[in-house]
Amino acid sequence: MLPALLLSLLAGTTASPLPSRAPSLERSIAPRDLVAYTTDIQIHSSCNSTQTRMLQQGLKEAYEVASFARDYVRTNGANDTVFKTYFGTDSQAYPSVLGAWDALLSSNKQGVLLRCDDPDGNCVQPGWRGHWRGENGTSETVICDASYTDRLYNAAFCMGGFVLAETAPSLYWSVDLIHRLLHVPQVTYSAVNHYAANLGEVIELAEHNATLSPFDSDALQYFAAHVYALEVAGGGDRCIGAVGDHSHAAADASATTSAALACHTHSDGTKHCE
Ligand SMILES: *[C@@H]1O[C@H](CO)[C@@H](O)[C@H](O)[C@H]1NC(C)=O
Ligand SMILES: *[C@@H]1O[C@H](CO)[C@@H](O)[C@H](O)[C@H]1NC(C)=O
Ligand SMILES: *[C@@H]1O[C@H](CO)[C@@H](O)[C@H](O)[C@H]1NC(C)=O
Ligand SMILES: *[C@@H]1O[C@H](CO)[C@@H](O)[C@H](O)[C@H]1NC(C)=O
Ligand SMILES: [Zn+2]
């Protein structure tokens, strides 16, 4: 009975005459060439099987951390204490942050590529773990050999005395790859950028000048690491440390100490370390 009814309804829909405006409507919705869409990030043939497997795992974990951050924002909203710590209290913050994570997760990754050779010759520089290729390959990111020996997987979040307030979370593959993907123009159409140079500046931005906080790469990374460390890794306050306690000097000092560990060059040639 129901299937038959549905069938006749569907048939009725298909057969129903188009409204008189149909010709112009038809033109405006005429099929366009479909853009190929994927959320898969390519791994270049310069990566051997070990590197490929490690990057695949890292990317999976980057999506895990990003998905958790998005779900956390969606669920807990803009009045959440952790949210306000990183993104402030501007009325636009909620949809902006949600949008930034959604863009990272669901933007078209067609052509987005990680590679293991060193075509720009940057990996020889001490402390370099990788870099966005900028004008030499706008959708390409080089991952340097050093990454494979000292980046950690999510299972090690909060392990070994890691404290978010003192150590850049790019120590973890997931957060490092989130950072690198945010540099690829098509991921957020360049909306996300660097407006703060370290955790202290991220907190300052949220407190005093929050308009750009949802679009700050470090604010997004630190927020994601914070909620993942607390809610998924179960690291508690000990894993977070004195974030937002106005102990900026301490946070800044340690950020500087680890600065040499995570440098990369931006399209305008400026070197960025965290
Ligand atoms: C892949 O490359 C790395 C770094 O050059 C090397 O240490 C590793 O042994 C290689 N793995 C395989 C399976 O060839
Ligand atoms: C968020 O907090 C503000 C300020 O306390 C309050 O006015 C608003 O109603 C809260 N919004 C929600 C959705 O809880
Ligand atoms: C792009 O290539 C040029 C020439 O090889 C090089 O000098 C420059 O540093 C490269 N840019 C990046 C971001 O690596
Ligand atoms: C706030 O951010 C804008 C845009 O980056 C900048 O021009 C301005 O100087 C900042 N204001 C303060 C008080 O930091
Ligand atoms: Zn960067």
UniProtKB/TrEMBL annotation:
Residues 38-241 form the Putative peptidase domain. The keyword Signal applies. It holds the Pfam family HRXXH. Keywords: Signal. Residues 1-15 form the signal peptide. One of its GO terms (cellular component) is cell surface. The keyword Signal applies. GO terms for molecular function: integrin binding; metallopeptidase activity; zinc ion binding. InterPro entries: HRXXH, MetalloPept_cat_dom_sf, PRA1-like. This is Putative peptidase domain-containing protein. The lineage of its organism: Eukaryota, Fungi, Dikarya, Basidiomycota, Agaricomycotina.
